[in-house]
Amino acid sequence: MLDIRRLHMLRTVAARGSITAAAQSLALSAGAVSQQLAALRHDVGVDLLRPDGRTVALTEAGRVLLEHADRILAAMEEAECAVAAIKGTVGATATLAALPSTVARIVAPALTALGTDHPQLAVTCLVTDQAQLRELALGTVDMVLGQHYHHMPETTPKSIAVSPLLDDPLLVVTAADGAADGAVGRSDGRPVGLRELATDHLVVPPPTTDCGQAILQACRRAGFTPTARYVTADIAAQLTLARSGLATALVPRTAIDPATPGIRAVLIEDNPIQRLLYAATRHTETTNPTTAAVIAALRTAARQDLTTHLPPA
C-alpha cells in the first residue's frame, strides 16, 4: 500500500523543483526526503524523478502517480472536513497566508476578534507577496487572503475555492500640499484621470509583483508607459516618498492607515485599478468549521474597513 506521506513529498518536490527546496518547506533534511522518495520508487518499481539541469522533473510514471496522488490527498482532506463538520467545533490550529497590504486593516482586526470568539484557536500567519495559492495547493497553509486585479487574467486553479471579501481600489497618493516632484498639482482633492499621471515621477512595485504588473497594464491601457522613478513593494516606503513630495504613489486603499499624516489620497476616475480581496481555501464538498470561522472573521473585518475614512489632507 502506498504511503500518503511519501505521495505528499512527491507532490512537494514536483512543485518546488528540487529535493532541497522541498525539504526546506517540509522542515526535513534533504537526506530524509531522498530516503522516502527512494522507498516510494521501490514501492511502485519504476523511476519517478529524473535530473533536469540543477533541478528534478517527473518521469512519465511520476506524472501519472502525481495525478492520482492529488486525488488521494484531496479525498483525505474531504474526509477530515466531513469529520470536523460532524464535531461542529472550531479546532486548535490554522494557518493563513496574507498579503502585507492587508495586515493592518483586515488581518489584525480579524485575528483579534478570533482571539475573543475562539480563544482555543491559534492562527499562524505567513505574511508574503509570493505564491500564496501554490502554498495553499501544497497544503503548507490552510487559507489565503489574496488578491485579483479586475483587469488582469484570472489564474485561480480549479482546485481552489474563493470567497470574495472586498473590492479595494488603488488610490493616487501625493504630498498633502500637492507638491509631488514632477506631478500635476492636485491640491483640490478631486479624482484624477490615470492619463494625468503620464508625466509624474512614480513609485511603483516591481513589475514581477501582481500590483506592479496591474499598474503597468492599466497605464498602458490608458495610453502611456509609467515613469518609474522609484521601485519598491514596501508600501511604507511608497507613502514616505509620496509624503516627501518625491513621487506619486498608487496604493491600495486598505493599505493606507487613516492616521497617516501629510498625504493626499484620491480616486482614479477613469481606468480604475481595483483589486478583489478574497479568502481562498482548497475546494471541499464539506465546510471545515475552523476555516469557516477564520474566513467569517476576515469578512467582518473587511466590511468594517469599508467604514474607515482616509485622513484629511
Textual characterization of the structure:
This protein has 313 residues and is an alpha/beta fold. It is 40% helix and 23% strand. It contains nine helices and 13 strands. It has helices at residues 4-16, 19-26, 30-44, 60-87, 103-117, 132-138, 210-221, 235-243, 289-305, and strands at residues 49-52, 55-58, 93-98, 122-127, 143-149, 160-175, 192-193, 202-204, 228-231, 248-252, 263-266, 268-270, 274-282. Strands 3, 4, 5, 6, 8, 9, 10, 11 and 13 form a nine-stranded mixed beta sheet that branches. It has a two-stranded antiparallel sheet with strand order 1-2. The chain has a two-stranded parallel sheet with strand order 7-12. α5 (103-117) links the parallel β3 (93-98) and β4 (122-127). α1 packs across α4, α2 (19-26) crosses α3 (30-44) and α5 (103-117) crosses α9. It is globular. It starts with a helix and ends in an 8-residue tail after the last helix.
Give short descriptive properties of this protein.
single chain, 313 residues, alpha/beta, two-stranded antiparallel ribbon, 40% helix
Q: Structural class of the secondary structure composition?
A: alpha/beta
What share of the residues lie within helices? 25-40%
Instruction: Give the topology string: H per helix, E per strand.
Output: HHHEEHEHEHEEEEHEHEEEEH
Oligomer: single chain
Give the number of DSSP strands: 13
Low-pLDDT stretches are: none
Name the average pLDDT. Answer: 89
Number of helical stretches of at least 4 residues: 9
Globally, the shape reads: globular
Q: What composes the largest sheet?
A: 9 strands, mixed
Instruction: Supply Rg.
Output: 23 Å
N/C terminus separation? 67 Å
Q: Which percent range describes the beta-strand content?
A: 15-25%
